[in-house]
Amino acid sequence: MQNAIFTGTLDLTYIERRAKKTRRIATTFALSTHWKSHDVFARQKMDTFRSSRPAVVELASRYHEIIIQLEKRTTKDEEAEKILFMEMCEICLWGNATDLSLLTSLTYEDIQKLQGSEARKASEKNILVNDLKDAYDVLTKARDEGKKERRVDIVLDNAGFELFVDLILAGFLLSAGLATNVVLHPKSIPWFVSDVTPADFAALLSALVTAQSFYSTPSDEEKNSGITPEPLAPKEAEELSFLFQNWAQFHGEGQLTLRSNRFWTEGGSFWRLPKSAPSLHEDLKESELVIFKGDLNYRKLTGDVSSPLIDVSFPLTRIGGVGSNHTIYKSYWPIRSCVGRKCACLAYM
Predict the structure, then answer these.
(1) In the chain, what are the domain boundaries?
(2) Neighbours of 329 (CB within 10 A)
(3) Fewest CB within 10 A of the end CB: N or C in the chain?
């Protein structure tokens, strides 16, 4: 197994090496008799989401509060809406810091320190490029023009807590009227340890609908340590139930949908999109805003460029990324926590 995965990877790029290794694992299960749909990373994803309980409960309460405010408003307060939009997007940004493939040495307590309102406030000074205002203007412009269909696409990254905050953002966009539809793009197979598959979406909703059992039942590790988790308070269970009902309603009414595509698990950069997946390429052109989450999508946007001659101010159109003349969407926007030294073209995103 080890030789089958790693042979012949020394001359490949970082993305190609990881893609080859992960695809070999997925292929091994796909060729089996009884394990075809098995996700070897699924348990790890949900265990990490479970460890995010304090941040999940905090955000559930904040989300419920915001939705109530939006339902009660009688006049449009654009400045207040803009502030809420920025808050939701910053939550989405720092949720990207929870990447299982990069946090292998951290304890659950360490992961919790990356989440929550205090962690976000402490990290604000670390934002290198902030295009939140431009993104908000794109969405309000489409709304003010009276467009009946205003779609936002989110090319997903990590499952667990990051998928949770992506859904927080999606629910806010729909509730605030900044979008009429949100399309989520997961991977079609288990990918790069923690990337989202359609099954992860179902598992997260299942965890929310049975939140008391999910968070109160001891894990194997807790049983071995003699630890019994505290049950959710009635208010906490109520907030999580509201989240499930709200998102399930959007999903049931077709406003929140998933569309997986094998292109997202190809090894090449996004400049290949028009020829590799022409139907996906044409479909994304219908979106008002395409949000690319995480480091992998950022690397693919920039062609995984690494050169002292290409820095944050180098135009993306010069290196054949998705913003090149042959691959233009209405607007695209990467949301990424820098987990490596790849910082090309930040000023042009």
Answers:
(1) 1-38, 42-348
(2) 16
(3) N
